Amino acid sequence: MNTIIGLGKAGCAIADKFSQYPQYKIYKIDSENLDGNDKRARLLKRKDTPEEYEESAPSMKTFFRYTTDDVLFVVSGAGIVSGTSLRILQQLSKKNISILYIKPDLEFLGKANTLQERLVRNVLQEYARSSAITRLYMVDNKVIEDIIGDVPIVGYFDKLNDLIVSAFHMINVYNHQTPVHETPFKSSDLAKISTLGVIDVESGEEKMFFSLDSISEKCYYYGINQKALETDGKLLRRLTDSINKNSKDEDIKTTFQVHSTTYEQNYGYLIVNTGKTNN
Q1: What's the CATH class of domain 3-170?
Q2: Which class would CATH give 188-274?
Q3: Stretch 21-40: mean pLDDT, rounded?
């Protein structure tokens, strides 16, 4: 995911969060609040319906000219500008596309926005199941709020997006590093719908960012203090016991990586995969 493309208000906000890390090229697409002089921002003409956005989606061949082969496309279905999603994805079809889908709090959405959100979410899941995209990551804002705890109104989405982006970034970093210990694993081509989560290394408690059905795979990433790696003879057994406890279903395949850090506090992330769509 060297290129991050944010569509709509939520997508662009998360893309902006990724810009703090030098590893990523950031592109933003929306119908408002974009700098017209920014060569990596595309301002769309405002429309009244998702159908109008889809019909009027412009060619972005020049705009996407310098994107890398690996793309993370970030979108929430709640905004009507998400109607351009499929047209944009078609123009990126030669890339390795992963999608980060943000499910909003549906309680206060209007009827039209609720229908649009459900449509986009279901279509993207079918894209993943058919291998039209590399992977679909699903995140639920209400679940993220529950993980964080009390979140003030001012800076509400900033706090939620900080957790989402930091988890994605650290997993991406670990996937490009050599771990001090790992177990071999090859993900199934039938399990391309995913979410992320955080792990309390001491208690083993897992908190996922989206409630997925019929989980078939879990991939754990542990960041452990270097001194503990050198001196704690029971650490590996505690980690494996925790993984086994949280994956009692024998149909769930598991793998884990352990990475060395200089932080005093140990931390963990995970990716869980399924092949089943979630309504």
Answers
A1: alpha beta
A2: alpha beta
A3: 89
